[in-house]
Design goal:
32% of the residues are buried. The model has no long low-confidence stretch (mean pLDDT 95). Strands 3-4-8-7-6-5 form a 6-stranded antiparallel beta sheet. A 3-stranded antiparallel beta sheet has the order 2-1-9, with no helix packed on it. The termini are far apart. 16% of the residues lie in helices and 24% in strands. The chain is α+β, with helices and mostly antiparallel strands. The chain has one domain: Peptide methionine sulfoxide reductase (Metal Binding Protein, Guanine Nucleotide Exchange Factor, Chain A, Beta Complex). It binds zinc ion. It comes from Hymenobacter telluris. GO terms for molecular function: peptide-methionine (R)-S-oxide reductase activity. InterPro entries: Met_Sox_Rdtase_MsrB, Met_Sox_Rdtase_MsrB_dom, Mss4-like_sf. It holds the Pfam family SelR.
């Protein structure tokens, strides 16, 4: 389980090695993302609180990066944080997310990005629920929920 000290260590020293890397130009990203996805993932914008797709959605399933389809979060770690954005307590795997100090907007925050394509996802805060104490505050535009796997037999 990741804790705040792990987040700070990743941001300060080095992030986990990604399972693969996706490197596209801004033009290539713009061609495959919606304008709203591009603003969040590639330009670090923040979508409006509450008026976003997954704020109040608790359907079971895995959330993948809207840019590169890498698995990022599972619905079992999603919780109601009253922030206006989808919130998670843990990433799906340690190597799914990378961490960067972000001093913009006169705040000291830790930005979280997709570790595979570098897409901006949101921020992580140390005010989440026990036992991990983390709150991943994520833009809905940066993620896409896959339906739960169906039994093919
Ligand atoms: Zn990605």
């Amino acid at each position: 389980m990741l804790r705040w000290i792990d987040v700070l260590t990743y941001a300060r020293y080095s992030n986990p090695e990604p399972p693969r890397r996706v490197n596209l130009t801004d033009q290539e990203w713009a061609a495959q993302l919606t304008p709203a996805q591009f603003r969040v993932l590639r330009q670090q914008h923040t979508e409006p609180p509450y008026r976003n797709a997954y704020c109040r959605s608790y359907e079971p399933g895995v959330y993948v990066c809207a840019g590169c389809n890498s698995p990022l979060f599972d619905s079992t770690t999603k919780y109601h944080a009253i922030s206006g954005w989808p919130s998670f307590t843990q990433p799906l795997t340690r190597s799914a997310i990378s961490y960067f100090f972000d001093d913009s907007h006169h705040m000291q925050r830790v930005e979280v990005r997709c570790n595979v394509c570098g897409g901006h996802l949101g921020h992580v805060f140390p005010d989440g629920p026990a036992p991990g104490g983390l709150r991943y505050c994520i833009n809905s535009e940066s993620i896409r929920q896959l339906p739960p796997p169906t039994d093919a037999r």
